[in-house]
């Protein structure tokens, strides 16, 4: 029982981690909505989840020299959760100042991601409630 | 932790946008200032935004990289009675474009508003996270 419990909670945890990281990326995009030459970044959540499920989490490159590129936008590197591959958003309406942030896209993605994260947190909470019920036997 | 980083990022944006609003306020207040501290007409100031890491783990926020003075020439107004007028009777006014400043002001205040909303969303999620095992 505890095994399946761990497994379920583990996947919920990685989902919550990815959602929280996406929240951070979208906040960065919105914060830099007026920064010249800033390019909006995001990742494909579904693809990231598939990666985690298939056990392809860590894309960080092994560096044998400090002069090697860090490649810090891939899962497992820095604060990027496993399985995530951060990409640049394709431009919808090019801007003269080279900024590729589309406020409508970012804000709706932020709101959607917040709801998804909240859902994940509620699921985790319910998982704990189930555990409590099992312990108390009521 | 990512949600705390969201707060830091939004805070950096709030600081940057208020600096921009500050520059706009200064420009609008001095739209008619014929002489500044250096004796020359006031020059419009613009802030330059730059994306930069705000936390040790590489979360990217925004900061004001610098304040530059606009290089556009000031408009000349014919007013021979003004003590600041040149030999032809023209007075050089500040190069503040009021329309530009107003749009800048609206843009800055909207961006500020958006980032406060980001902060409150992050706060709600953090509280939700704290309530997990309750």
Tell me briefly what this model is.
The complex is a heterodimer of chains A (138) and B (134). By secondary structure, chain A is mainly alpha-helical.
Give the mean pLDDT of chain A.
85
Shape of chain A: flat
**N-to-C SSE series of chain A?**
HEHEH
Strand percentage of chain B lies at: 15-25%
Listing every helix as H and every strand as E from the N terminus to the C terminus, the arrangement of chain B reads HEEEEH
Structural class of chain A: mainly alpha
Q: How large is the radius of gyration of chain B?
A: 21 Å
Note poorly predicted spans of chain A. none
Question: Averaging pLDDT over every residue of chain B, what do you get?
Answer: 90
Q: What is the first-to-last residue Cα distance of chain B?
A: 21 Å
Structural class of chain B: alpha+beta
Give the largest chain-chain interface (CB within 8 Å).
A-B, 30 and 38 residues
How many helices of chain B? 2
- Gyration radius of chain A, to the nearest Å? 18 Å
Q: What fraction of residues of chain A sit in β-strands? A: under 5%
Major β-sheet of chain A, in short? 2 strands, antiparallel
**Major sheet of chain B: size, sense and barrel closure?**
2 strands, antiparallel
Shape of chain B: elongated
- Oligomer state of the chains in this structure: heterodimer
């Amino acid at each position: 029982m505890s095994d399946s419990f761990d497994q379920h909670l583990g996947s919920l945890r990685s989902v919550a981690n990815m959602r929280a990281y996406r929240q951070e990326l979208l906040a960065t995009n919105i914060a830099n909505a007026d920064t010249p030459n800033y390019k909006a970044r995001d990742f494909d959540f579904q693809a990231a989840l598939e990666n985690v499920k298939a056990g392809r989490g860590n894309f960080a490159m092994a560096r044998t020299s400090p002069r090697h590129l860090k490649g810090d936008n891939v899962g497992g590197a820095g604060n990027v959760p496993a399985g995530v591959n951060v990409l640049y958003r394709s431009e919808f309406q090019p801007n003269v100042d080279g900024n590729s942030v589309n406020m409508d896209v970012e804000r709706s993605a932020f709101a959607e991601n917040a709801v998804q994260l909240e859902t994940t947190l509620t699921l985790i909470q319910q998982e704990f409630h189930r555990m409590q019920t099992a312990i108390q036997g009521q | 932790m990512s949600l705390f980083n969201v707060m830091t990022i939004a805070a950096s944006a709030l600081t940057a946008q208020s600096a921009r609003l500050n520059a706009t306020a200064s420009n609008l207040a001095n739209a008619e200032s014929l002489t500044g501290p250096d004796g020359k007409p006031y020059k419009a100031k613009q802030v330059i935004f730059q994306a930069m890491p705000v936390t040790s783990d590489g979360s990217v926020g925004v900061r004001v990289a610098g304040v530059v003075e606009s290089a556009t020439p000031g408009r000349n107004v014919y007013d021979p009675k003004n003590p600041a007028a040149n030999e032809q009777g023209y007075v050089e006014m500040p190069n503040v474009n009021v329309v530009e400043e107003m749009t800048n002001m609206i843009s800055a205040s909207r961006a500020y508003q958006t980032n406060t909303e980001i902060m409150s969303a992050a706060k709600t999620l953090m509280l939700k996270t704290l309530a997990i095992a309750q």
